[in-house]
Amino acid sequence: MDVQTTLTVASPESMTGLGKRLAALLRAGDLVLLSGELGAGKTTLTRGLGEGLGVRGAVTSPTFVIARVHPSLVAGPPLVHVDAYRLGGGLDEMEDLDLDVSLPESVVVVEWGEGKVEGLSENRLEVRIERALGGTDPEDDSDPRRVRLTGLGARWADVDLAVLG
User: What whole-number distance in Å separates Cα of residue 103 and Cα of residue 28?
Assistant: First the structure.
């Protein structure tokens, strides 16, 4: 059975805070898929995850390098941050990144991974971020966001995602 919760996030600072709280629920081997339009807050959420996990390096969009590895500074799992936006080949192209090798000991976060990386694990957290008020300007981060988190697989069966709200 899938677990799901939906939250409203009022600001970029609140999105970073959600990432920090979510990090407390994550562990090595977790796959997190982030979806939402340009400017929705995917990288901002991932920045909060990085802060919450205590990883090294500034978490920025890995659009041009495809993937960045942020080692832990606190003996936790590293954060592997992937931007699949420019990858069109699905799992075959993703396999070139060896994410299946990184996954068991890392927290792997994939932006734009929908339809591309689900085959990496039946246990995953899918996070969809949408503008709550229907705004469309990717430069305007003042609109509240609606964040739907769906935990799939046995790993998430007993996780209470509602504690994030």
Answer: 7
Cβ proximity of 149 and 161 under 8 Å: yes
Contact residues for 29 (Cβ-Cβ < 8 A; gap 6+): 77, 103, 104, 105, 106, 121, 123, 155
Pairing of strands 31-35, 124-131: parallel
Strands 31-35 and 3-9: unpaired
Strands (E), the chain: 3-9, 31-35, 67-70, 79-83, 107-111, 124-131, 145-152
- Going by the DSSP 8-state scheme, the letter that residue 64 receives in this structure is T
Query: String of b and e for 127-148 (b: at least 16 CB within 10 Å)?
Result: bbbbbeeebeeeeebebebbbb
Asked whether 80 and 106 are in contact (CB, 8 A), the reply is yes
Are 150 and 123 within 8 A, CB to CB? no
Per residue in 12-59, pLDDT (tens digit) is: 999 999 999 999 999 999 999 999 998 899 999 999 999 999 999 889
Structure tokens at 77: 């799992």
